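Task: fold both queries, return tokens.
Query 1:
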Amino acid sequence: MSQTEHSTPTISPVSISEQRNAAVQRRADYPYHFPKDRRRMGGKFTVEEGAQRLLRFFYLERRLGQGLGSWTLTIPDFEVKLETGRHIFWHFDAAKRLRDRLFEMEIRLPQIDSYRDAEIDALLDELLSASDTPELLIGVHLVLGRAIEVAYRHHIDDTCPVTDAPTIRVLKQVLLDYEPMLEWAEQAIEAYVEGGIEAPRLERWRWHLKSLLASIGGVTGVEARTPAPTPLRTDTTPYLRGVIPCRDSRFDTFYHTGDYNVADGAPRYEIGSYEDQRLRFIRTQRDEVDAIEAFGTFLWDIRFKDFKAEYDLARITWDEARHTEIGHNSLLAAGYDPYEMPNRLTSSTCRGPMEPEFAMAEINLFGEIGVLKTIGGLIDEARSRNDTLLAHISDYVRADERTHVRKGQHILKVMTTLGMQELELRTRELFTECLVSLGAVKMDGDLFTLDREEIERLVGE
């Protein structure tokens, strides 16, 4: 039986009249009239019952973050890829807050991290089997996201506002991210429909997923169950993440080189000049859309190995989405139409099909460390020239990259048991093979392996 306000046995109070009367007088004499606490004791859940619901909430948030990560390569539309990078972190941040609260409710961290639910997994696999990005957004946001939001609000209403105040605070903090996320999703779906995506197809998919969610008892798992819809897409084709990076039609893309001057056909400024380095840095930030794809994909590929590694990958994914926004907005501030600048696909083309430990090593051991080698001098030069735009953005990027290098060491240890030397050599070999196959590197005679500096230059971060 649930512990409710109606289950308490009746025990008559025994007051001493002198003490009660004195208390009344002391209150009357007290000069300050503070706001009254309108909360009342009583809720539907015991600690164990509340924790079971929160454990399911945690698992849904973790799975949504992982699942969105698996789509980062496949989403073509620029704004949607950026928002997805942000939403990945929001879901993992929600998962972390719930995980911390569960630990306070006497659930051991290994028990939390090892929690699995086969019905939720099946729902997520079907949701991720969307035929395109609009269907993905329908499932993630307008079906499951909306249902989670409602479940959180109901939990806030149903749990005890006094004894379980920490849970209420956690859920209210999470809902601060849900509100703009779901509002954006509604507007994004409207944009797709206005642009020609068939609304009846999206509505049919929405109804299919709502029916599937209802068949597993909804978000909480305790709602009345209905028959599952048939057939499921996953009945015939198991879900697999994509490996090919996609861009929308506004972009002119290239992958045969990592050098912007080569891709452009001619240098815009004197090669090696400050102006050349400045524009390259800004364009590199805009093209960190490929880093959203990389870190999001890693999240999927190492799912359930280590929660801290997943959380750090989610945060880095959001950082890379911010870097992309920084680059895009800085191109505007520098007087360019961002879409006039060809977008570099070299990195994602190589990393997409690659085992995660080697793709991660390329970013962490080559890309991010490579940035830190040169960015200090660029910041000093920008400040000496009073170039406030570049000094401002590069200062923040440097702080992020330092953090990513530190976090990357733990993530790599989760991904592989290889020693650093062996990992670095194999990464160089794989990227050499990829760059040769793309035509970014010409083979003259004997086999060779690019050194660290050449990979930094040709792949770029």
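Query 1 returned. Query 2:
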Amino acid sequence: MKNPNGYGSVVKLSGNRRRPWCARKTTGWTEKGYPIYKSIGYFTDREEAMIALAQYNRNPYDIDLSKITLKELFEKWSARDFPKMSKSSASSHKSAVKHASALYSIPYKNIKAYQMQEVIDGCGCGYSTQGAIKNLFGQLDRFALELDIITKCNSTLISAAPIPPSNKVPFTDDEVDAVWKIAGQEWVDSVLFFLYTGFRISEMLTIKIDDVDLNQLTIKGGIKTKAGKNRIVPIHPRIEGFVRARVKQGNKFLFSYNGKKMSSTQYYIIWNNLMEQLKMHHTPHECRHTFRSRLDSANANKRCIDLLMGHTSKDVGERVYTHKTLDELRNTINLLR
């Protein structure tokens, strides 16, 4: 039975081919009146080709985009998004995509989750690089969804090596000074923010602009425990400028990625690049230990330290932040040199 006009056709190609059946659409006509075809795909039998043609007609998509390879998709995505991200993030994505070179020429819609996982497992690198590759596939999947190239994100099915446990070694004074020496670089303010507030990474990434009081110079944050939720931390004078600059950006969250809420995976890529530059081997959580250690060394009031850290303490009853309490917390924070 003949297909309706404009529906498309299925033809068998000549020669010895593994997929001889072609589903195609007419996209125009030559000057001599011959049809111009765009192939939807090649198939092993006629039935398979007819099903593909029917699916296309039910939900038409850009045929050229459906054939876009991983390499071409990365180039399109990077041209759009790289100008909006930091140089370190862009550099990390460029390095990550090199590990997927074996998939460069494959149409992105045909790449399976197990192939993505093979790239991660076979990269021969540690958790940092594996996390960067996983993050890249997530970015490309979301971009491919925007373009209607794929209908599901295979990147949600893959995994990377977990962050190894650390011995929680605090920063030395010399290391803190070394961070200050590059304070003008992108994202170094986030390291100093950790060092002068004691927030966890999960807490920092959920702090909203509305949680920052630039009149009182305080930040409300904390999510992990009952004692730590919505605690008040005064802004140390040395990081006040960084906080004001972040607020001025006008994003919903204080530390954002392309104007949106940042994931811990995205932040760890930035963190690892900074630690590599500084030739240090610390985790963000070690900033929290540094914060407490430096306050202990300055003989700060234990009750105030527990309030700032969000720890349960027998010296901390109701968390009522009176004017006197805020003054005590501010004086405690200011003990950090």
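Both queries returned. Flag for query 2: The mean pLDDT is 88.
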